[in-house]
Amino acid sequence: MSDYKAVVIGGSAGSFAVVLKMLSKLRPDFELPIIICMHRLKHIRSGLAENLDIKSSMKVVEPYDKERIEKGKVYLAPSNYHMFVEFDGTISLSIEDMNNQSRPSIDYTLSSAAASYREKCLGIILTGANKDGAKGLKDIADKKGFTIVQDPKTAEVDTMPKSALKIMQPDLILSPDGITDFLNNLK
Amino acid sequence: MDFKQFLASFKIKTGYDFCDYSDNSISRRLDKISAESKLSFEQMLDKVMTDETFKNKVIDEITVNTTELFRDPTMWISLYKTLYQQLPKSATITFWHIGCSRGLEVYSNLIMMHLLGNLDRCRAIGTDLNSRVLEIGRKGEYSYRFNLYFKDNFNAVMAGCGLDAKFEDYFDIDESQDKMKVKPFLLEKPKFIEQNLVQDKAPFAYKVDVVFFRNVMIYFNDKLQNKIMSMVCSKMYDGAALILGKQESLTSQMMTRFTKTGQYYQKKVLL
Hints:
The complex is a heterodimer. Chain A is α/β, with parallel strands linked by helices. Chain A contains six helices and nine strands. Chain A is globular. Chain B is built from eleven helices and ten strands.
């Protein structure tokens, strides 16, 4: 795990179930921070972090602005805010305009993580019905970070993984279980 | 030229001081303007001096102008059940909305005051750096279709508070023109005043009971947060309420002057 500073995950339609299962199966001593940006339906504004927290051995939080990113914690983009990784290892939030019709925007989270962590960033794009996130994952790959795309065949909606595959070549294309195994086997 | 040098020159040339905005946030937005206009920072500075429209565009991009009616309904419901039940019973109640943009939070609060029977003794002030968004707030006229979710927020708050009110009680809707306009009895209440938080004192003489300061300080570094919060704090009555954004908190230095009560902060009474 020393090769990476954080895991950054983006997903939209269908991704909540995937993330829930992944977090529940991660080994208890998984120590990299996990930074997640998921689109959510506008009327479901709370409870997401609480639901993930119950199933996860890691602490799941919706971070406050300027909160320090710590090992062994999961950071979930709060509803209606963009979430960025800053150079000083903190989270910052913004309510600026939507990007790809989305707030939070996965591109924003992933691109900022790419800029801050460079080759020590591990980026994952999951199922989703929007192209948001494709450019962000490409930014991670361009900075020599490690990239994984959920196998479109296993995706509830394959627009998001396919959009990523259209503009970049990830290091791995895996099923949700494959992604979990990969994370659990990180040295 | 890096973004810090750009901001230093921009301050000298225009009087707008963004030097203590948080680094990543402002450099990201400046990069965006640079990419979209296909200009370097040097070229942008030259253009700012000769092209008023471009200068305004830079300011619009740097200052985030997002605002929505009843943003974060759970917070409004919580305020209704707590703070709003404890407001002064007779005297004037003064609200200050800092960074109010197009004024939708100002009108959200006034709707609640109307429902509580407090509208007549309310004083509402909205301040913002950007005179163009303030003008929209004064007019109280917004696109309808693009903002249909205002209605969802409104209905969620009314349901959560157990209040019986309709969106149309407060807005005149003209679907053919794609417009909704705040009704005159609300529109006449607030004062919208330009204020540059970094440089200016509060642009009014009285003290305030409630400060809405949501999702503004997220763009400032700690040093600037402390400076501005000291100014804000000095305009608040003892025991007055401060409401921040859902994911915001006070710096440790400022926290010594407030007590957190549910969704809001209360200014400590100094003995």
